[in-house]
Amino acid sequence: MSRRNNIILNIDWVLMGIFLFFILVGWINIYAAAYNPEHKSIFDFTQDYGKQFLWIIIALVIGLCIMIIDAKFFSTFSLVIYIFSIILLLLTIFIGKEIHGSKSWIVLSETIRFQPLEFAKFSTTLILASLLSQTGIKIQDIGTRLRSLLFILIPAILILFQNETGSALIFVSFIFLLYREGLSGNILIIGFALVVLFILSILIDKLIIISFILGVAIIIFFLIRKTKKNILTYIFIVASIIGFSLSVNTIYEYALKPHQKKRIDVLLGKIDDPKDAGYNVNQSKIAIGSGGIIGKGFLNGTQTKYKFVPEQNTDFIFCTIGEEWGFLGSATVLLMYLLFILRILFIAERQRSAFSRIYGYGLASLIFFHVMINVGMTIGLAPVVGIPLPFISYGG
């Protein structure tokens, strides 16, 4: 009885309340997105909304079981859990079933299938927390950085082999965890600069980009101290930037698949293809925009009702929220996500163990990236990738 009372007392009810809000919003909007007049009951288990109710119950039971397990179990067996997830990712490459162009699903039966990549996100967070919480380990050490990078890259590369580029991109989020543990902020700045340079190199002719970089570099040259060390550093930085800029087209042409290039071209406005590559985003923006301030009301969304937006109960569930609940509903959901992430960070900072704190930051980073990319792609600010909206999209 004492153990059970401690579990109840240790629950953060603010966080739990926001979580319950998300799963309720998700369930209702999945009902709206997948509504079938011949199966009106939201508890109809032949429909996605009925199945989602089962997933909610199962998730709550699993959550309770995890709370009962001592936290030391996860830190002790983090490496075992990580290796197991890597084995699952490898098996998926060979025995996985291809669905919607990606070979990332292990199918156990007609009704039961799962993506090991979701398990890999959890296990990678665990192994990073276990590594960085060890006594004497510092992120400033090159060995620690390399080990951390290796733990992140292995699952990300295996997921890329499954043709799940979007899910592999999620592993970039761990840079925020590493930053909290002492990684230099310069790494974040360099990463952001490379993304900007990549986009500019696609949009503008390479020679113009190189000329621009060289012009800025010459100005910087006269501003910095003219010591041998600074000049060598300056030359290295300029050479690296020019080399990256020159390699962008090669990466763009040969590393990306045709449909991925089309999506990026549509996003950047290089092509206008509303009937093919840009169809999903175009219909998505129409749906969200038509919701206005207060929305069209529950089950009254025309884009939703007539299935104009593909994958509307999974990757594009935010369209249903925007159309039926309007700007106010969309803003409320985004605000709740902000509060949810901030609450996780608040709880993480209060933890006595470094393992729990680091894991909390990893979880917050994953959720932040998921929300940013999912909502970004529905409103045309990010390329379309198969990233669900946490706790709201259909699925277990």
Characterize the overall form.
globular
Order of helices and strands: HHHHHEEEHHHHHHHHHHHH
Backbone structural class: mainly alpha
Percentage of residues assigned to helices: 55-70%
Average pLDDT for all residues: 84
The largest sheet, given as strand count, sense and whether it forms a barrel, is: 3 strands, antiparallel
Total number of helices = 17
**Largest sheet: spatial strand order:** 1-2-3
Indicate the low-confidence ranges by residue numbers. Answer: none
Distance between the termini: 31 Å
Produce the secondary structure layout:
Layout: H1 2-10, H2 13-33, H3 48-68, H4 71-76, H5 78-95, E1 97-99, E2 102-107, E3 113-114, H6 116-132, H7 142-161, H8 165-169, H9 174-180, H10 185-203, H11 206-223, H12 228-255, H13 258-268, H14 279-290, H15 302-305, H16 317-349, H17 354-378
Antiparallel strand pairs: 1-2, 2-3
Summarize the structure in words:
- With 396 residues, the protein is mainly alpha-helical.
- 69% of the residues lie in helices and 3% in strands.
- The chain has helices at residues 2-10, 13-33, 48-68, 71-76, 78-95, 116-132, 142-161, 165-169, 174-180, 185-203, 206-223, 228-255, 258-268, 279-290, 302-305, 317-349, 354-378, and strands spanning 97-99, 102-107, 113-114.
- Helix 5 (78-95) packs parallel to helix 7 (142-161) and helix 6 (116-132) runs antiparallel to helix 7 (142-161).
- The radius of gyration is 23 Å and the shape is globular.
- The two termini are 31 Å apart.
